[in-house]
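question for whoever is on the cluster today: can someone run the full assembly for these? two chains, 973 residues total. i dont have access anymore since they changed the login thing
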Amino acid sequence: MTMLWPAALGLFALAIPIIALYLVKSRVPKRTVSTLLFWEQIKPRLSQQPFWRKLRRWLSLALQLLLLALLVSALTQPQPFWRSSQPERVVYVISGSASMRARDVSPDRWAQAVAMLEQRINQMRYTDEAAVILATDPPQILSGWTTSQRSLKHALSGAAPGAGPADVRPALSLAENLASSREGGRVVFISDGVLSYPLEPGAQTASATAAPAPSAPAQSIVAATPAPTSTAATNSPAPAPAASASPATASASASPAAAPPSAATNAPSASPVATSDPLPAPAPSASTAASEAPAKKPSLTLVRVGSDDAANVGITLFSARRSAVAPGEFQISARIESNLKEPATVEFQLTRDSRVMDVQTVKLEPGKPWEKAWREQGPAAVQFHATISGAARDDLAADNSASARVEGLHKLSVLLVSPQNAFLEALLTSLDLVDWHRVEPGKDTAAETSAAGLVIYSQCLPSAEAKPRAAVFIAPDGTGFWGKSGAPLEAPMVSEWQRESVPLRYVSLDQVRLNSAKTYTPAPGSAVLAESFGHPLIFGDWDPASAPRWLVLGFDLEQSDFVLRTAFPVLLGNVIQSLRPTEQAASAAVLPGPVCSRLTSTVPAEAFVNGPGGGSASPTGATSLGTAASESGAWTTSFMPAHPAWWWLTILGLLLLMIEWRLYSRRVTE
Amino acid sequence: MATTSVDALFSPDFLARLESLALAARQLVKGAQRAQRRAVQHGASVEFAEYRPFTEGDDWRYIDWNAFARWRQLVLKLFIEEEDWHVHILYDNSASMDWGAPPHPPKYDYARQVAAGLTFLGLANLDRVALIPLQSNAGKPWKPARGKEKFLLMLRVLAAQPVAAEPGTMEENVRRWLSTGPRRGLVVVLSDLFGADLGDAMRALDRLRYARQEVAVIQMTDPGEAEAGDPGEYDMEDCETHTTAPILNDRQAARDYAKRFRDYQEAIGRYCRQNQIALIQTDTRQPVPDLLLRTLRHGGFVE
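^ ran it for u. tokens below:
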């Protein structure tokens, strides 16, 4: 038994005055009577009192001493026997995913987790240290190492779970690093087990190093293209195979999921020590490495909150995005899922700018999501809002509504520097949301070119002072920042093109007749998008980060049938569309996502220290996830409010005080 | 603590009530000269009693010569002697009487007020009244006296009479008083009858009876004595003997105490009825004039 304030044991000295006062109290009061004639008659009966009656006064002293012992014990703040005498250094990680808002336990999982953690904080000794991390994207350190219970509770009071799924791996890696900085430090992860990503930190590292795990395709996308904007992938993270066929997945592919910037920076590698050590030691020799035991990795204890019978029907996807080829069009997608084992019926309502757009009664079969897409048109900004209601059981309210906004389109200013060109002029006229005008070659001014979103130079070059933000050169002749032209190319023909490049997406250059083309030498750093047997035909630097963005079509449009094909408007449409702000393309609601909405633990119950096996198994089988089975009793949830031991001791002491007062102070002797 | 001031013990109002009681006593008791009672003793009087043969040493003046002339035998003519009626008021001055739970007066004060009232009634009826403290070694007895003029002096004696410091048994005290040879008469015992044991009071009354005294008893108790009082654990101290007894006064003990008290009172009543002793049992809540009126109506206290 350890105590937080052992000095309080000195208060046992109060037993001395209690006994002294008791001895004083034991002097029976004298009462004068006129005669003992009648009392002496019943005195023999009094001597035949039960044994306990004779001991009653001693029992009073015993009760008082017991009361003192209880109060002193309460002041010492005894700790459970399983707590060692060594200081404890624990990094507490609380899951911040939206599933923690589920109300399958009262009042909800988050409150239960906070209550459990506060109970642990209350049991901290003055030598114990703790830190608290909220596992959100990115993880938040609510409190660093501290011995102050007040600081920890204050940090907890301002925390709240997020609205979407959370990747807990960066938080756990951060906690590991934090725990490694203290001797004997360990990590306690309080979660409902609803993890959208594998728990083992190694999996995260593997994906981050371009070795995508099969179960985490989203992470591979994250590693390849750390795109900034979150869309459907945010709502349907990694292990969601059904999403691959849905429009949402297309959205995800187009605009990859956002990964927290800290995912790669904060998270150490899977190696427990070597990569997480902020000051890596020199590589030991083979013999040294063999003889030295690996550094001990902080143990991880999983503590579960929530229950297994959570029921939920929720929106797992709601997105709206504009069409890539028709900017005025946009598409709205919604998906509803249920984790109930029986069919469920909900009322779905979709509004556009607060006006009802669609209302449906959705019948959900177990395990089968409901999906639907809508197509709408309009250049203005639109706010969509979807709600479901009427579910028989619904423990998570966060996924019952979703909002998505599609920003309005702005006209793109295009400057055509060219002699009269019927094809280009007709095409620019036909494109929506394009405001163009033509100037003769050599007449373009710096102001015009810098103001235009796109400058198309047909068979001419920009003036010296021209500084376009984006430019398309059609059969340029000469030398420029784009490269230089050479001799005419004989029998040009498109032999290969980059179908995945942004300008050539959905563009088919197969069997395009090019009667007139030149050989070009692209500028260093540019990409060849189409070529004719090694001779670049279309090349440029269309990277959004480049300034300026430029593209060269190395053939004469009027001498080819390219202008007669659909590929011509698609190419120019891609070019113009790619110059529009990205955020105008798509918008997705921040939702808990399919994994969180299921509210089902993805971690085996045996992995939790308060689970059926008391932490006998590791969630992933990894040795790094050591558990502290001895703590199982401390994390057992109870219907009783969580109170420290001293609280119960005080209550018991007061109860004894009342009994003693009732029996003796009131002189109720029977 | 017993009162020693005459004015405090016998208030003017109390004395005024005694005067009215004396008038009531004359109406209740037939005959004006209640003091003229026949004594068993033969002596000089006008009423013939009997003849007795003359023996040597007899006063020859009482020889009935007419009888000698008729019978030729010397006989003495005896007459019934008329003498005053003696009333002995034995009031208990033991320490147990100096006890009273406020607001009631100590039993000793109450007994002295009753004694004063009875004395006044007796003096008013031309009786010879004697006031005898039961523990005579602790107080000075008031010898039999007659005449209302003695009343004020008697009051002073009563007020100054202290409570006995030493314990004693009632039987022994009565025996000691009887040994002084009091004349036979009415003995009114004013006491709580709490003796050394349950039979002490009855043995004392037996001695009075055996001495051919007419006995009347006024047993006075304090209301607090009939109950056990507050529950708890006490060292009960006898105020007379100063002996203590550890007592756990719980509800059962309180019930037993009250039963024992009632049983004792009933035993006293039964004893008096069997032995034709006039008995009045009262407590100090009853006003003294009311008690005196009650004695007049009860009979046995005033002939």
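summary bc i know u wont read the tokens: The longest helix of chain A spans residues 56-76. Chain A has four domains: 2-25+37-77+645-665, 89-226+261-274+296-306+604-635, 313-409+584-598, 412-579.
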